[in-house]
User: Fold these one by one.
Assistant:
Number 1:
Amino acid sequence: MTSRKSRAGFGLMMRLELSESLRSRWFHFYAAVLIGLMVLLIFTGISESRVLGFTGLSRLLVTYIQITMAILPLFIVVTTARSMVGDREAGNLEYMLAFPISLRVWYWGRFVARLLLILTPVLAALALAAAYGLVRAHEVPWRHVALYSGLVAALSACFLGIGFFLSSIARSTEVALGASLLIWLLLVALLDLLLLSILIQQQFIPEAVIAIALANPLQAFRTASMILFDPQLILLGPASYVILDAFGVAGYVVWAMVYPTALGLAFAALGYWRFAKSDLV
Amino acid sequence: MITINRLSKRFDRRAVLDELTLSVKAGDRIALIGSNGAGKTTLFRCLLGQYRYQGEVSFSGGAPKRRDAQALARIAFVPQLPPPLRMPVGELLSFAEKGAGASRAVMTDIAGRLGIDLAEVRNRPFWRLSGGQKQKILVTVALGREADFMIFDEPAANLDPAARAVFIDLLAERRNASMLIASHRLEEVASLVNRVIELDRGRVVLDDEVIDRLKAGEFRAVSITLAEPHPPFAAALAGWGLSEQHGGLNYTGPVPAGETFRFLGLLARYGSLIETLRLDQDMPETVA
């Protein structure tokens, strides 16, 4: 009886969050950017060009996914971090939490609904690319499409969890926004393109550099998305030996999916714990 | 029904509720009064499980628990300020139906009596409604539920006089529900309540049962002498049915006992004009 009530409450919260987000401008903008980006890449004929051996849909997907890596986390963490704290400041939480919905259902219902919302435009864009490939008689790399979908889902869960955590602990929208931008900047800075390469140049302790690269969910996503098209990781240089020796291609792809998901869920759980233990309004 | 034992809530080092002890019996209708910052809203938030606190709050003899969804299923709440919900009114009503067991038919009836056509506002975002419309919708949702305990935080603040009167009637019809009503206008809710609790700096400074002395159908004899004639005050007293003597300096007549607080509220507004005031409990039979 209780579990049926919980399921009904969970469904109710998901519907409420879905309809609330579908009405919001952030979602319209987010969907327009992610789907629009794919349309732009298709129309600029990027699938017809060849760079470093990538051509056709593979070239299109690798370009899209690298750009997505920069946009997606920022969108997720900024819009999520301000959601609950914004509701608290506005007085929405005071009213809505007076209804007999358990906090667990309230929090996780919102989390799952947001995850679905965030993934939908990316998956729609990938489906659009596949449809375009079929129409143009390109070979559709279905395995890559599926793996990209998994990587995007893992990255989304990671930053959504961080966003929920920040939203739970921040006492004002400004603090939540500032913290989310700081975290995003830090993770971007620690990519192999920026700080990480400087650390390698400065002959920083190799184990520490590898640990930073493995711990950074953005780097995990970037490396795994490259590994699919460049199994020898030629683009990555000598660091590729460490990855391939320690993990192998399949092992690293599993790491890049499991680790960010687990990290996101851990942050979300920590956020829930903090949310449930502190003043709700 | 509700037992509050040594409830304390501090913000930083300031105690907003200070070892407050109180019990609410089934059927109690309580006017909660007190100046700004006395702790009324904080008390409500503790009852709704929205704040951490020291002390105990238990419903119907159950184990003390901070936020109990089962207890919340029995509590209807109207906040002091309507939240800026972006959802359409129809979605809020649907949420109240599915999430809190509110009845669509009852809500439609209540909204109609308050002067709101639910079909007309169904698709309008809640935050775009006027202050009064928002308050009417929140009252509709609260009274559309089969709650046996109602918490109202300044519920009539945004209502026009007609809606206010309907609201008071609607509350009076809920005979089986207990109520905790915070209001700065005691006279407005006086006819509804059987108990008045005053908070000051987080403590109960007055807890008085009033119903026995203010029965419906009984009257009090009023006699007022003014320092000088005052036409607006005279018009207000005439509205209560008092008759004028000595060129607008004296007023006498009966006032329903159940309306005493509301009448005193009127007098409070013109307190500086009143030279003498007499309020007798027994009315001569000819008047009553």
Number 2:
Amino acid sequence: MRTVLYLVQKEFLQIFRNKFMLPMLLVMPVVQTILLSYAANYEVKNLSLGVVDHDLSPMSRQLVATFGASGYFTVYNTVFSSKIADADLARDRTDLILEIPPHFERDYIREGAGKVAITANAINAVKAGLAIGYANNIVRAYSLSHASPVAVNRPPAAIQVEYSNWYNPLLDYKTFMVPGILGEIIALIICFLTALNIVREREVGTIEQLNVTPIHKWQFILGKLLPFWMISLVMMTVGLTVGWLVFRIPMLGNLWLVFAYTLVFAPCMLGIGFLISNFAESQQQAMFTAWFFLLIFILMCGLFTPVDSMPEWAQWLNTINPVKYFVEFMRLVLLKGATFADIQQNFFTVLGYAAVVNGLAVWTYRKRV
Amino acid sequence: MDHAIQIEQLTKTFGNFTAVNAISFEVAPGEIFGFLGANGAGKTTALKMLTGLLKPSGGQAWVAGIDVQRKPEQVKRRIGYMSQKFSLYEDLTVRENIRLYGGIYGLKRTDIKAKTAVLLEKLQLEPYADQLVAGLPLGWRQKLAFSVALLHEPRIVFLDEPTSGVDPLTRRQFWDLIYEAAHNGVTLMVTTHYMDEAEYCNRVSIMVDGKIEALDTPRNMKKTFAAEDMDEVFRKLARSGS
């Protein structure tokens, strides 16, 4: 064990002496948390709306004004020909067309029902879906508040849906993103650093010197992993502090649980980094290999697209995605206040994962060349 | 008498290529044994097998009485090694490097302190003790690396081209360190490309294409090959081999 302490001391000396390393460990998480949390969200705003108003009645104008006041839409123009509106949509000047037919107001008042048409540019399916959803809500709210005099005598629609958003009542996406991004950054950085650190020793040649000493494989590996293990805790502390100071993210769960989980999760990523380093001969190779896996891990971890809506095979594939577990954990504990009992399956999966990955890393590490 | 190193029919093949072809010899304790050969002759491969870095394909080797094939980790406890690549940590200071390797070999903290002081004084590195190794001239670094390889008092030290790229004066100083170690009973196995250094060895072997073509004292070798100096011996042998 004393040998390991000497190795850990050496790693820390090197890390603190490296001008690049500390900024990477401390500044990167802060910048990414702030930047990504503001920029990467699911909200669609500033939709450009083209209006074709064939009715030009007080009611049609009121409906258009409601759209404009919703905060989601900006009325690009009001025209009287579908052709012009279609052309605007085709040229990407508008995202959505609201077409109000002639006699809209008259029909609505006399018959108690009216129709409007909504056409969305669905090249970006997510955006189109959201835009149509918003538009539907606006039209429904409008029709409820402007009940037709004819309709007054009829029973109102029997079923009404009332919404309440639990765990994130104001639908603030930053609240949703920050815990996930924090998990993603820690996973990314420690995996990269471990892989590069070990391969660097191979490139420089110092690993050969260590290999002719009587240190055991496990001593060498512990000496490499312990420093980054501790660093993952520091990064978590910094990240949570930023999340709390800047975004006021809720921390409903037990923070000790968060740190305890980090201690189990970090070895997972460290082990993957170590495993990569065993098969890479240069830092470049290690970098590309690590990037290959991390890119998949990050895009599939549920940070940007919900895991539940992925195809079944992808969800199955995701069971070997460690980052998924971390992001899931962070959201459950911080936003929902999950306790250990709620996340124990996740916890033990990650624990097992860490054991397997590190076992493989130790097994494939060769003191002989 | 016990040999420091004993090799019998040691062989290493990589696929179809035989890098080391059934070499056999012994090295006596306290001997300075020169291990010569052209680039690619198999010196480094042989050295790597003796230090437990590479698994032999055939034959046997005992280093400090221990079977290299069976117990490479026990061999490592008893040997020192300095490779042709500079093998100290450049981003650590002189003192930190000594402490690290002392710690790895399990020396006590007080021992490490004491040995650091002695070593710094001997190499006259005291003013540079807390400077990064990266800032030291190559020759100084190599002397430091050699001293660090001796830190845990190994009985045998392997030096793989320790002086390549070092100026003649520092090379001379380096050999003084080698003589001193040999005087203290350490067995040294040295590979080199400098033929003047070959003359400093007690015995010399010359490897050509994975085989040992000649093994003798430098004096006898020059006689056998009717050569003026080791340089001529080497050229005669290398030519006949190719």
